[in-house]
Specification:
The chain is mainly α. It is built from three helices and no strands. α2 packs antiparallel against α3. The longest helix is centred in the last third of the chain and has 21 residues.
Length: about 90
């Protein structure tokens, strides 16, 4: 897997888009590495507080269920970020 900005053919960093649906914003409009930039970075609002909450649970020894809830939010936000970064069929519904 080799990451390059754009090759001579103008292919985006993640390869040729293979998704047949384009749900959200225009692809690769802001940065070359994120197909849907604003959807990708908006997950920071979920990821950072969830990561902090998970850290606090571990630090202060809260019940496991609270740590699990924060961990699930961390995983979900990373999954959403992964979905919005490339435009491939394995991440977008087709």
């Amino acid at each position: 897997f080799e990451m390059q900005h754009e090759d001579v053919a103008g292919m985006p960093i993640w390869g040729k888009p293979t998704s047949t649906l384009d749900w959200c914003e225009r692809n690769y409009e802001v940065f070359f590495w994120a197909a849907e930039f604003y959807n990708t970075i908006s997950n920071i609002a979920i990821f950072i507080p969830s990561l902090f909450g998970l850290y606090q649970c571990v630090k202060y020894g809260f019940e496991f269920r609270f740590a699990l809830a924060y961990a699930r939010c961390v995983v979900c936000s990373r999954g959403k970020q992964t979905k919005h970064t490339p435009t491939a069929t394995h991440t977008h519904t087709h």
